[in-house]
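SEVERITY: medium
COMPONENT: batch folding queue
REPORTER: lab tech (J.R.)

DESCRIPTION
The queue accepted two submissions in a row. Attaching both inputs and their returned structure tokens so the on-call engineer can compare them side by side.

ATTACHMENT 1
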Amino acid sequence: MRSRLFFGSATLAILAACAPQVPDSARGVGFDSIEAVQAREAALRGSTIQASDTVLPPVGGTGAPPPISGVAPVPGSAEATAAETARVLAETRPAGAAEAEAAQPTPGAPVVNDAGISNENNFDAVSEQRSIESDAELMAQNRAQYQVIQPEALPERSESGQPNIVAFALSTSHPVGTRIYARAGLNGAARAERNCAQYPSPDQAQIDFLARGGPERDRRGLDPDGDGFACSWNPEPFRKASQG
């Protein structure tokens, strides 16, 4: 029985010797022990060198300390750059730019229509410039400038001795091209085309045709089809005009 206990104790001793060493739980891997850290902090607190407190920049700021009044900013610093930029902008700003910027409406502000109404439609403005007496005087001046023109009788048509083609057109009713009068001769169409080319218009040809004895007679061959209308003259427009 004793030999078994001895053998078991020897086995446990061998296993304990072979087991790896476990580091102290109070220390981290690669770190000093808690006692060393606390001793170093105590030494720092007792030293005359004090660590400066951390100063956070204001909200929306740059973190730079405010400029000291009466002291020029350090060349190359943010304050010097900002001051130089403001100076250049002020010198290069066109004339009237400040007034124009001041006249710009504030973002988000309601837009006000300053156009207003014209003086002619503004009762206050008109009442300052005009009065009932001045309007009456102006109306009197306008009446004095009126001119009344009396109607006159239309001049009578002078008798030129030429046939009236309007009266002739209204005295007929047959269509163009309807033979009414007898015509004789050969090559009537060619003769009519050659002679009609000598008149500036069909109206002038019809007037000359009637003056030479037409429509019964056709001395120049202007009406080869015998309808009484020379050189393609058409009485229809005059007929329609008389009918309204």
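ATTACHMENT 2
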Amino acid sequence: MSQKANSEKKIVGIIGLGLIGGSMAIDLKRRGFASRVLGVESDPVHASAAKEIGLVDEIVSYEDCISLSDIVVVAVPVGAAVKMLPDILDRFQAQGTQDKIVIDTCSTKAHIVRSVHYHPMRPAYVATHPMAGTEYSGPWAAMPGLFDGRACIFANSEESDPKALATIEGLYDTLNMRPAYMNADNHDVHTAYVSHISHVTSFALALTVLDKEKDEKHIFDLASGGFSSTVRLAKSSADMWVPILVQNRENVLHVIETYIEKMEAFRKAIEEFDEEGIRDLIEQANRIKKIIR
């Protein structure tokens, strides 16, 4: 991605100083995109920690963040973001500004994009999804370099002002992310397959093992690296994942149905001592090596 943003440094306000917002704050300041980073955090403990560990230059109110920032980053769970975005655009309109920009970092896009489709300030909004993260949350989870080499999805970018879009392309270029462009509905289908189902299956596996562990106390003593890597996502925050799974309900349900079909195929082959059937299923799955190395 070429550097398309105005070379002038920006004041960036970040609402939500968890893993994504906090990591963004670190690198936007460190790499020279932002002259100042303002933070908004509703949890007083998290707010204090974010300031103490230097994620932001200053903790400010929600209102001051919108008033003082050139770019407002909404890095809160999508359920809150959907309510917040129209209000931010309302405030932009009331301020009479034409050069402020707001972005979100949510992992579902259709609902949030539709929530402001007819807003007079819609061109000031750039819908993005940086495809990066870990299972950890809170300001302590923030880290430099989180986004390096990862993809960032721009959803319905044709609805954004070209100058605003170029500025945000520059922001993600600073974070060393690769851009991809698609409409919001396609985005939600794709993320249901590559992200959301992974979390659902990890949650389900964790519940399964926890049920079994009631009877077999040593099960976790025997857990290997394979189990740890598979169940890692089960540590993810419910506050983040409940609204994601609800908002992307139809796509997630479709993927779950397909997943259950594949599990039933394994169950049937194992139940019937069908070694060739099991081998065939595994070898079909091995084709993923061509996609993920």
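NOTES FROM REPORTER
Residues 1-6 have pLDDT under 50 and may be disordered.
No errors were logged for either attachment.
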